[in-house]
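#structure-requests
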Amino acid sequence: MKLCRYDENRVGVVLEDGIHDVTSALDALSAQRYPLPPHDLLIAGLAGLRPALEAAARKSRPTPVEQARLLSPVANPGKVIAAPVNYKKHLEEALADKGIHHGNLIGEIHKVGMFLKATSSVVGCGEGVALVHTDRRNDHEVELAVVIGKRVRNITAADAPACIAGYCIGLDMTIRGPEERSMRKSPDSYCVLGPWLVTADEIADPGQLSISITVNGAARQSAHTSDLILPVPELIAWASSFYTLHPGDVLLTGTPQGVGPVKAGDVMLASLEKVGEMRVTCRAL
């Protein structure tokens, strides 16, 4: 299933003929009061809600994808965990180009660990990226994004695939500079997720996907997730050894070589095998 959020917080199932509005099926979700739970309600209830979503999709008329303003497929991620330098060639690239990490010491992911992006940075591809600190280099970083579907802690790599709700494309937008990663990567709109969530049952192996991005039609990044230094199950296991993972948490698995700057007016087209592609426009804040 391909599940999206669009326009004024509508929820849709994406089929060959377009987006089918299934918002009515969300009435089955349990009502919540303060304090709200630390997870995304739709992702947490997705397995049980799926028959109702499919039934609602069959009854609704399609909206062409190009006519919808796509939002992040996850409305309320509790946290966004990101893996730095998780492709060997990107590590080599970062070591060779000091402009990428402002001369900071760069190490392998095994040594530097992961970092967090603010959830306030999350947007959908239809919202675009509002660039800030444009006197500095602002880069695109295309990534496979994994959405957690179950509450887990200290899960093993062998068991990790069972806790995945689905996958989408992620753009880990980045301001280059001396500050810590979490600050430079967390301005509003600097975490683009989309174009929709593809449920885990549709992707047998997240380690066998091609991924790429172009800017204004020019190829920038092109790689394959089989080149990940730490594959998806190991990343989940490692993250869960530090944090409790909740439904709707997002794991950005790392970007390949070819990162480069963007400016206001640039159009990025990110693609991920078995998921699709998303068009994202950059603008000045």
